[in-house]
Amino acid sequence: MMAFLAQFFGEYWPSVQTVTWTLIKIVAIVLPLMIAVAYLTLAERKVIGYMQVRIGPNRVGYWGLLQPLADGLKLLFKEIILPTASNKGLFFLGPVLAIAPAFAAWAVVPFDATMVLADIDAGLLYILAMTSVAVYGVIIAGWASNSKYAFLGSLRSAAQIVSYEIAMGFTLVGVLMCANSLNLGKIVLGQAGGFWHWYFIPLFPLFVVYFISAVAETNRAPFDVAEGESEIVAGFHVEYSGMAFAVFFLAEYANMILVSMLAALMFLGGWLSPVPFIPDSFLWLLAKVAFLLFMFLWFRATFPRYRYDQIMRLGWKIFIPITLVWIVFVGAMMQTSLGYLFH
Amino acid sequence: MVFTDIVFYTLAAILLFAGLRVITTRNPVYAALFLVLAFFTAAGIWLLLEAEFLGIALVLVYVGAVMVLFLFVVMMLDINVDKLREGFWEYLPMAGFIGLLMVVEMAMVLGGKYFSPTHAVSKPLGYSNTAELGRVLYTEYLLPFELASVVLLVAIVAAIVLTLRDRQDNKSMNPADQVKVRKQDRVRIVSMPAEVELPVEPPAVTDTPAEGKQ
User: Fold this and answer.
1) What interface predicted TM-score (ipTM) does this complex get?
2) Could A158 and B72 be called an inter-chain contact, meaning their C-beta atoms sit closer than 8 Å?
3) In chain A, what residues touch B173 (CB-CB under 8 Å)?
């Protein structure tokens, strides 16, 4: 079989092999990610349910475990309504542009010392670029819907994401100063040797700023003014129904998992175990990501929504100065005899 | 033809098409989106040239920030396309001349011996474009680099100062003042003695038993 294929493709055989192998790896990342997204929605409803002294979904399957499948099937069979005055091409391009960067960013995420799809040196920059592209889905969806609520939602979201991206970028500068690399795998390996070597200790203010900015970047409560129900119905996706609506949700949850993953990799030691005598494993990474995702749900269950001008103030007047000051502080400390604490 | 050639020609075709559509499409939002596509494919071509830092920086800065704000403005404007096209024939000779000049300049640069493929230097495996760029930028070109950033800073401050108008009739609140508010500023706790309800005098005892006993 392989010999026949090799003969068929001739000189292109190595390229074909590379492409096929890469495609298989992509499926191996995206498929578990989709399942994780599905069960994150269930986890969200369960966790918030228990926090509000309810039990959450418990009808479909044992303990509600089949609920995500039921939701998916329902949305799949619903009609996608196209508003008459909408811009048809862009209306369908919106969800696609929302979900594509959310998946594309996973290309450089290392799951283990060897398990990574693309081990590139500028991995951190690539992720920052991909997450900043994600805003197009929201903007285009809001504009193409030709609805005032949707448009207001998309403008809010665009301004918010552009603002918080700056603070997020500066926190990454702190990480790469400590790690001396933009490669995510090398950043994790720079934290080896127990939890007291993880970067969240020397970069604690940056860790906090990063995580809160991540919540704002993904448009999650308490920063979810882009879809603030009480003011603008459902924001940018008010005109979407069926699977087009579901794709926006998939993108939002995939982004949540992505930013939690990045926080775990950059500040919490990735797949490294907290103490040297327990072996490092992918399971550690899973546990850290699960904890950070739980924080997302916890925020949503406990904090009231921010007012819009307060969001802007927090981003521009508090987070950006904090990150700038801490970067200068870290840079200065690295030149002193205490510099080893920051590497 | 190797695999990278196929990728290059695909990206180049998309780039040319997107660039053409930016100036031919009638809808300004489409034009901005095609410009985004053009930037994105140009970044792809740079990645193909192993200039990974430049490619990603192009996406990060132009696609991720500049074009978002651009779209933001274009979407909110009510642009009359016919009015924009009014002076088209009048400006065409001048624009054509400038365009021609640019083509000649490009031809001179690309035709020169420094850009011929023989000058392509193959880099060793593990060569990091990003690290190399950072090293040069912060050692050899430190002063020009810092000067450029100061010029940019001045431009930012100037843009803000020029456009900032402090409206007197603005009734917006200052969130900083609101956040500073403490409980003492808004809430006054008044100590009041509890109103004690005096027990009602029990009626005089009669022969009938109390109702509670039944």
Assistant:
1) 0.79
2) yes
3) 309
